[in-house]
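Lest this sound abstract, we let one protein speak, letters for residues, whole numbers for local backbone shapes, and leave readers to judge:
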Amino acid sequence: MQNMLFHAHSGLRYLVLLAGVVALVVLLLGFMQRRPYKGLSRGAASAFMGLLHLQFVLGIILVITGIWYGALIGHMFMMFIAVGVFTGMAGYAKRQTDDHKAHGIALAGVVLTLALIAAGIMSIRPGIFASSGHPSARSAPR
């Protein structure tokens, strides 16, 4: 099960990054064209947030089930901040009455979050798209 969770967590990062890029484009277009902050804009932000939260929960489960190595401290810290930044900024954007401002806040949240995600991924591997080794090579001793 641990191996399956590891590969799910490792593979889900591509969907998270894709959702982040889609949200970035949708929110940027909405901001530039002064569209209402609803429908596609909120949906793109929500999809990104949902996948981000799922990824975070899978990571927590992996740590609880025993996958641990020193570099994970930096990775976990960056990802925790990334989830908090986007959750907070997306929530703040939803409460705005000015659609242009809402797009700008959500857009800034996506940009900051993607930067934090990239830094968090690179804290445990040489690049964002680099593949990783098998989790048992880094598991905590039993």
In short: The chain is about 75% helix and 0% strand. The two ends are 16 Å apart (CA to CA). Residues 2-129 form one domain. Residues 2-32 form the longest helix (31 residues).
